Amino acid sequence: MIVTEKSFSEQTYWEEIARCKTQFVNNGEDPLLNPYLRKEVAESWIRSKNNGVFPWTSYSKYYLTEEEWGVLKEQNERLIHIAQPLISNYLGLASTNGHSLELFDPSGAFLLGIHINISSTPVLSIVFNESTTGTTAHGLATYHKKPFQLIGPENYLDVWQNMICSAAPILDEMGEVLGTLALVQDMGEKPWEKNRSNLHIHSLGWVSSLAEAIGNQIKIQNSYDVLNQVNNDLRKATETLKIILEFIDEGVITIEPNGRILSSNHEGSRILNVNHGEIRGRNIGEFLLPRSALMDYVADKKTVDYMEEYVVNGREEKQYLVSLRPVYKQGNDELDFAILRFNHSDKINALVNTRSGAVAKFRFEDIVGQSEAMLKAKALARRFARTRENVLLLGESGTGKELFAQAIHNSHRPGGPFIAVNCAAMPRNLIESELFGYESGSFTGAEKNGRPGKIELANGGTLFLDEIGDMPIELQAVLLRVLQDKMVMRIGGRNYRQVDFRLITATNQDLKLSAQERKFREDLYFRISVLNIEIPPLRSRGFDIAILAEHFIENYAKRVGLPAAVISPEAKRRILEYNWPGNVRQLENAMIYAVNLSEEGQIMLSHLPKELSEKRTALPMVSEKECDKPEELFSMKDLEKVTIKKALERAGNSVAIASDLLGISKTTLYRKLKEHNIHY
């Protein structure tokens, strides 16, 4: 509310307000009921009185300490810096008319200005608010966030009863008060008789304009700060991105829709074989084959992952997997630029192999067994693992040939991929594409970007071809060429790709006989069988059977969260005497079956699979080579000696178990051992 000229000139107006304040302070009369007093002023009086402030209070005791004043100036540094020159320009005008121009912070602390005829006490460190000096114009302007004017007795302190104060808030971008500018006019005695109404009526508009000008300057400065901060953050982000791009081992290149190169990291420049400082402005098409579809994808604004491309450097062509990401102009779908990422195909293949489980997990230490036959096979495999020659693993199904292949790989090329292919399990019409891969569009159903074959994926590692005897004869010639030249061409391709891998093959067939019968290429047989290892069947591994059974029980129980079961003596005897035609794989399955049927942590004979629990299987017949004599007929004594040895081996040199397997007493077995001079 602005005081009108009429009210300013009426003595009654001044006296009625003064009387209202006296009645309020002394007698508790409600100032809100007085028609001469504005509501905002009355409410401020009430707050002031409730704060323990009275009109006769002196404000001289509300000083800030020097430290507090220093903090205050620092907090309001921008406000003071911008307001000071503007205030200085008007101080001369104000002081010649007996006025003062002052700047306060939101708490009412005095920041700038010169007081005229208020007090001889320095005021550069005094706080003026409802808790210290009661109602003031700058306090109301701060409280209500709008310009305010108080006349004479509306000011709460008696010392200001002849003052008129006009104040306006300085607001920030969010409408919050940064400070308040106040113009104080000393009207002297009987101000209603003074001809100054015109000046004080326009003073509120003048101080409001000045406060708005200061606020605008602060907003502009804040905008500059924000812009500078954004630019600084953008610069940091750009520099960080450049550094990150240099750390990665992929080529990252940005191009315009027409192929013009905008930027590249150092790896991208290296891939294109161009000096890093000279790559900008070149066209990506210069480095691609004429048949490349990359720019077609750019024109179509397509997103592409791992598309095979050849980068041409002179006469040399190198293959890379290129990913494409279009970037659109802001506000529409028009292509602004495209980002290309170049990966060497070997690195992607290694990643694919890792994620698809093409990793050898087993080492020689993981192959369980202490029998003479098994120790011999492991020793031979360890020796062969040191070389780069092809290895052929011979043995029945289920004997653990892949475990040996993985162990050999982990001794020779542990960092490379281990690619296993079962030639018998793969459909005949798919094995060629699986092994050799194919280019895009080679046949109906082929992936649009082509696909690497198992041989290509094995580059830098090991290719394990299980059941090699079941490979189609027509593919054997192609495999032989790959082994000879260390080059592979995809189906539908025109370029050979260099490959470097170690070949390990496995079979349960007699490949030599198959070669003689022309069911297997003889030249391929000789190529893959440079080093042969025979994996013994489980039935010839003696007490390894019991060791493996306990190993499988413990592993399975741990995997499913069950306590490890103990094999009863009766069940162990049956496990040891069984022939195990399915070898280690059959034994593992039998133990899983038994654990799931076991009760109270013990595996009984009835818990074993049907083929083990129903009837007793005799020990296998003794072979001719196991006898000490070369004659065609053997004496009963020789057969007895060999049978006892075999029983001891199967029982892990346990006389109790061996005697049970033989169906004789321990006493009889001890006598027979002494008789045949058998040491165990």
TrEMBL record:
The keyword Nucleotide-binding applies. It comes from Desulfitobacterium hafniense (strain DSM 10664 / DCB-2). This is PAS modulated sigma54 specific transcriptional regulator, Fis family. The keyword Transcription regulation applies. GO terms for biological process: regulation of DNA-templated transcription. Keywords: ATP-binding, DNA-binding, Nucleotide-binding, Transcription, Transcription regulation. Pfam families: AAA_lid_14, HTH_8, Sigma54_activat. One of its GO terms (molecular function) is sequence-specific DNA binding. Transmembrane segments: none annotated. The lineage of its organism: Bacteria, Bacillati, Bacillota, Clostridia, Eubacteriales. Residues 367-596 form the Sigma-54 factor interaction domain. CDD domains: AAA, PAS. Residues 237-292 form the PAS domain.
